[in-house]
Design goal:
By secondary structure, the chain is mainly beta. It contains 5 helices and 20 strands. Helix content is 9%, strand content 52%.
Length: 431
């Protein structure tokens, strides 16, 4: 349902629609004259409106503030009477948003959870408007406890052709996407171009998760030299990745992963990997949008055909490897934690191994104070594909090949503090 605005000087009408069951549409009509600037009691009503903090990474906050005008927005969760935590996860081509409304203070115990699913064909505007409508609907119980309550009217209607059963899906939950793009740059002494294109095929149901994805990446650069021949760089990274994952209850999953790769940077002419895997989730998968701690194990075989002879004097080989991964993904009103630790090794020689850690932590330390810490680190001893010949200076500077290293890492840290007015109601998009 769209939002209807009255003419200047009149009371705006806000319309919210949500499907309650097949064939039934709930419509919220909120007439809000008390919020009009011309109303003598407008300031008092505005003061009584709920204090809302929206905690959402993918939301268009400016659009939400323009469309939902019957609440007060605050800049810090410690100031809020209602904390709206919005999380999302991909589905078969779309996204599933989970909206948790958490009451605080006078609204303590008034909690609710709504979900909103988008389709692969939805535009950014459709996704934004649908999520905004669901946010409006979730705020009704809080608005009903304010002086705005007399302006709230609820009604529902049934479409002319109501159906108790969902329509049949000729695609059987399969979604497809074709993508492509590139860029080109030039100047007097050099030019470069990059191209990427590929295809996705996904199927997601309660029991199965399937992906088929071929991809192609080409990079080329030509550098003109006055004291020698031109330098030509051609890099490619093509492949095909796929998996089939089976749900085994609320805590277990099993899958089969298959991949083909060819990449000049990694000295790989052809590489085929097949690996079964199992996973255990310490929390039910239904809680994955807000908290997830998993432990997974994968073992597989790789057939490798190298472009150049490797440091171990191999031009092709068959390798067996396994990996154990622990992952933590938590998003709560106090902040978020995303972290993973993976250990892997080759089975024919476990001295060839790799340990990978990555993580990002965001904490709200107090009113207006946030701390963000992130980083990743790899302990590397499994570069079996490194070419035997020494890397030239051009290879190093132009990053045409992978270099030997014992470790790789990066990190970041940030601290922020905001103060001043607690409200963030006003939207001004000028310039």
């Amino acid at each position: 349902m769209p939002m209807y605005r009255g003419r200047p000087g009149r009371s705006p009408l806000l319309a919210v629609g949500a499907v309650l069951s097949p064939g039934i549409l709930l419509t919220l009509m909120l007439a809000a004259p008390a919020l009009a600037q011309e109303d003598l009691n407008g300031d008092a009503t505005r003061d009584a409106a709920p204090l809302i903090y929206f905690d959402c990474n993918r939301c268009d906050f400016a659009h939400i503030r323009r469309e939902i005008t019957f609440v007060n927005y605050v800049r810090d969760p410690g100031l809020a009477q209602v904390h709206v935590l919005v999380t999302d996860q991909p589905t078969g081509g779309g996204r599933l948003y989970t909206l948790k409304f958490i009451g605080r203070g006078s609204y303590a115990g008034v909690d609710n959870t709504l979900t909103y699913a988008t389709r692969q064909t939805d535009t950014a505007a459709q996704e934004r408007d649908g999520l905004t409508r669901m946010l409006q609907l979730g705020l009704v119980p809080y608005v009903a406890r304010t002086p705005l309550a007399p302006q709230v009217h609820l009604s529902f209607r049934e479409p002319r052709e109501a159906s108790a059963a969902p329509q049949s899906d000729p695609w059987r939950n399969w979604t497809f996407e074709i993508y492509g793009g590139g860029n080109f740059s030039t100047e007097s002494t050099q030019n470069a171009w990059n191209a990427r294109y590929g295809f996705y095929a996904n199927r997601v149901t309660e029991d199965w998760k399937i992906r088929l994805r071929p991809y192609f990446n080409n990079n080329a650069r030509n550098i003109q030299r006055q004291d020698g021949p031109d330098i030509r760089i051609d890099l490619k990274r093509h492949g095909f990745e796929s998996y089939v994952i089976r749900s085994l209850g609320d805590h277990f999953g099993a899958g089969l992963f298959a991949e083909y790769r060819t990449t000049t940077v990694d000295n790989l002419e052809h590489g085929v990997t097949v690996a079964p895997a199992v996973e255990y989730s310490f929390f039910p998968y239904g809680e994955a949008s807000t908290r997830q701690i998993t432990l997974s194990y994968r073992v597989g075989a790789e057939l490798a055909d190298y472009i150049e002879e490797t440091i171990y004097e191999q031009t092709e080989e068959t390798l067996l490897s396994h990996a154990l991964e622990a992952a933590v993904r938590i998003r709560q009103p106090w902040g978020s934690i995303f972290s993973g630790l993976t250990g892997s090794s080759y089975l024919h020689d476990t001295s060839h191994h790799r340990l990978t850690f990555n993580g990002n932590v965001s904490f709200r330390l107090g009113r207006g104070v946030s701390l963000n810490v992130g980083g990743n680190y790899q302990r590397i001893n499994d570069q079996l594909a490194l070419p035997r010949r020494d890397a030239s200076l051009e290879d190093i500077l132009l990053q045409r090949r992978r270099l030997a290293t014992a470790y790789r890492g990066s990190g970041s840290m940030g601290l922020s503090y905001s103060f001043g007015s607690i409200f963030t109601n006003v939207v001004n998009p000028r310039l």
